[in-house]
Amino acid sequence: MLQTIRRWFAPAPSIPKKSEKEIQSLYPKFRFRVLESTFLGYTTYYLTRNNFSPVSKEIGEALSYSKADIGDILAVTAITYGIGKFLMGALSDRSNPRKFMAVGLFLTAILNFSFGFANHYWIHLFLWGANGLVQGMGWPPCGRSLGHWYSVRERGTTFAFWNIAHNIGGGLVGVVASHSALQFGWQYAFFVPGIIALVGSVYIFIRLVDTPQSEGLPPVEVYRNDYPPEEKENHEAELSTKQLIVEQVLLNKYIWLFAIINFFVYIIRYSLIDWGPTYLKETKGADLLGGGYSTLILEFGGIGSTILMGWVSDKFDGRRGMVSLLCIIPIFFAFLGILWNPPGNIMIDYILFGLIGLFIYPPVMLLGVAGMDFTSKKAVGTAAGFIGLFGSLGRTAQGKGLAILATNYSWDVALGAILVSTLIAILLLVFSWNLRPRG
């Protein structure tokens, strides 16, 4: 049985190389197809991952869940998502992304349906933990696909554009979940995204392709004459499990640096995704839809800046850390503004949420790209999973930590903890200022 599953998920085999005329005609079409399908697929993943937070207050009221209970559900899914992202990343480097990503979407849809039908805390805890695990099947195959179809000198710009899938999916989920819950009940915040995910699963299975070689095309390095540093002769060499995990990741000091930075960046990012709607409802007078729209504002705030900063990082010879540092500094002052803004000025809070979204998503994207810059394209999924694991640990820390601080002390104390995390991220990014893939 296990062997059958492995064979089914195995990468698509190479086929005979097409003529030069066919290569020049087909390569741009397949590159767009990969970018488009992974973009839409990952957008859909977000609809079934972050749909709990916008309605967590309403679920708590309906089922008598405390802030600690809500925090536990947020924490367990962050932990399992981190573990899933690392494990699935290693598996995705040895799998066909078309099948891998489609199956993940199908499984998350089933878990969302199950969550909506359940009404018991421990069942919800288990289901959302399992959902975090299969959500790890989303990003790694995207990284693998883009790493095989786009070369090193265009990664910043390409990934910047692709990365707005985070913002569109993350922004829409607040609106979809809150409107569905308002019209039909909190359960539909999971039913509606689940239906969309089922459709997305079929689409990915039909539309996405594996490597260029599986379509009779040369590697992208050959097509664009753009080779990673010191890899011109072995850029297509397959890596063993030990090389993937130990040599390319665990013994790579740059991957460790980006991973630790990502821990604090995710505290910043998810503090407003996981707790922002609840914070605004409890302290600033927002309603259910207002809380949902705060997530939309946060996410959509990062669309333009992510594309711009990705392009800038390419123009500065791949200095992703430098650009990330310049983005994190304004976030500190935006959180101070939220802390000092009194109730009754909800529009100011919305503006500050948008400002944080404007500056937090470029580092979220660039840290992942930096991980790709300092490892082999054959280990993209593993490196991304490892960096993502630390990000999920950061989400876990804030998910549970902010619940404890807000319950036992105040929301002001919780915001103070976020400010400290922001300062630590700034300090660590200083050490990445001069790092570049071709430096």
Automatic annotation (TrEMBL):
PANTHER family: GLUCOSE-6-PHOSPHATE EXCHANGER SLC37A4 (PTHR43826), GLYCEROL-3-PHOSPHATE TRANSPORTER (PTHR43826:SF6). It comes from the Bacteria. The chain crosses the membrane at residues 100-123, 186-206, 254-272, 292-311, 323-340, 346-367, 379-397, 409-431. GO terms for molecular function: glucose 6-phosphate:phosphate antiporter activity. SUPFAM superfamilies: MFS general substrate transporter. Belongs to the major facilitator superfamily. Organophosphate:Pi antiporter (OPA) (TC 2.A.1.4) family. The keyword GTP-binding does not apply. The lineage of its organism: Bacteria, Pseudomonadati, Spirochaetota, Spirochaetia, Leptospirales. This is MFS transporter. Keywords: Membrane, Transmembrane, Transmembrane helix. InterPro entries: MFS, MFS_dom, MFS_trans_sf, OPA_Antiporter, Sugar-P_transporter_CS, Sugar_P_transporter. The keyword Transmembrane helix applies.
